[in-house]
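RECORD TYPE: inverse folding
INPUT: structure tokens
STRUCTURE:
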């Protein structure tokens, strides 16, 4: 996924809606690179020496790497992959990835009178703004879908974004209350594998290498993965890519070749063959039917 961010203009309709999004984005910071690596508006400039104060609520999810966070309400705290942390209006803060590891981050800025109510009802804690969500596949899908909604600017998308963000906050809160796989070490490892596969829709995955990264023995990984998901790792990943292709056919004007490339298929012929096998119709015909 390429780096992306957008800051949104807020009008009276968004304010009357009660919950609106001010910015969304994704950024990959490689090891030994400056942070931030993109130029943001002056009122969002972040340097470690000065820190900053913002006017809105933010949720940041670190999906890879590690770093450090500090605010006027918290001591310096280590951030690891799988951590969400929140920023609060008018609270000084600073954070950055570890120079040796870098990190990948997703963020959402939001505000409004309903946002104020939600964030001050005890669901989230400004003095302990960290939630270990783990490498949660559902959260990653929602965050990517939110960014896609913004980048495509569908009709009425500010309200769609508000709904999707509330869904994300609901999921994060639910995870904090009921940690999935807390007593299931193998389940945790397979959850991590599902997350890594979801992040690799643009390219084939070496499953033996993935098993080592988790880490698990390859044979045990394949058996446990199928037991939990009902599919082999390769089939699971293939279905993720084909489902992503359906989304691109429905929501973009990319041609079939471009969609095949963006979902990691080496040839449009192979892509079309697998798509038809799964869905019963070719990608071209699927798009035609969807448009009617």
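DESIGNED SEQUENCE:
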């Amino acid at each position: 996924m390429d780096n992306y961010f957008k800051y949104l203009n807020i009008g009276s309709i968004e304010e009357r809606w009660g919950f609106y999004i001010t910015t969304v984005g994704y950024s990959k910071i490689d090891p030994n690179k400056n942070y931030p690596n993109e130029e943001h508006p002056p009122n969002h400039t972040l340097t470690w020496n000065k820190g900053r104060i913002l006017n809105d609520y933010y949720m940041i999810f670190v999906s890879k790497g590690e770093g450090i966070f500090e605010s006027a309400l918290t001591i310096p705290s280590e951030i690891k992959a799988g951590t969400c942390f929140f920023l609060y209006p008018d609270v000084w803060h600073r954070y950055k990835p570890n120079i040796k590891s870098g990190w990948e981050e997703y963020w959402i800025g939001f505000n409004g009178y309903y946002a104020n109510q939600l964030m001050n009802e005890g669901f989230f804690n400004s003095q302990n703004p960290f939630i270990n969500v783990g490498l949660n596949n559902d959260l990653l899908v929602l965050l990517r879908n939110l960014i896609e909604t913004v980048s495509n600017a569908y009709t009425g998308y500010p309200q769609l974004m508000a709904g999707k963000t509330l869904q994300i906050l609901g999921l994060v809160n639910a995870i904090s209350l009921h940690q999935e796989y807390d007593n299931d070490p193998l389940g945790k490892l397979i959850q991590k594998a599902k997350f890594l596969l979801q992040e690799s829709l643009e390219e084939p995955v070496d499953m033996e290498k993935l098993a080592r990264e988790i880490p698990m023995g390859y044979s045990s990984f394949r058996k446990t993965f199928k037991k939990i998901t009902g599919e082999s790792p390769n089939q699971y990943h293939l279905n993720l890519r084909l489902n992503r292709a359906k989304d691109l056919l429905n929501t973009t004007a990319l041609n079939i070749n471009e969609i095949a490339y963006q979902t990691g298929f080496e040839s449009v012929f192979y892509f079309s063959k697998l798509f038809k096998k799964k869905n019963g119709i070719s990608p071209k015909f699927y798009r035609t039917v969807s448009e009617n």
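NOTES: The chain has two domains: 4-177, 183-292.
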